[in-house]
Amino acid sequence: MSAAEGPLVVGVDTSTQSTKALVVDAATGQVVARGQAPHTVTTGMGRESDPRQWWDALCAALRQCGEAAHEAAAVSVGGQQHGLVTLDGRGEPVRPALLWNDVRSAPQARRLVEELGGPKAWAERAGSVPGASFTAAKWAWLAEHEPEAVRATRAVRLPHDYLTERLTGQGTTDRSDASGTGWWASGAEAYDEETLAHIGLDPALLPRVARPGEVVGTVRDGHEVPFSKGTLVAPGTGDNAAAALGLGLRPGTPVLSLGTSGTVYAVSERRPTDPTGTVAGFADARGDWLPLACTLNCTLAVDRVAALLGLDREAVEPGGSVTLLPYLDGERTPNLPHASGVLHGLRHDTTAGQLLQAAYDGAVHALLGALDLVLDEDADRGTPLLLIGGGSRGKAWQQTVRRLSGRPVQVPEADELVALGAAAQAAGLLTGEDPAAVARRWNTAAGPVLEAVERDAATLDRITGVLSDAAPLLERETGTQ
Question: Which residue numbers delimit the Carbohydrate kinase FGGY C-terminal domain (predicted)?
Answer without folding.
Answer: 312-427
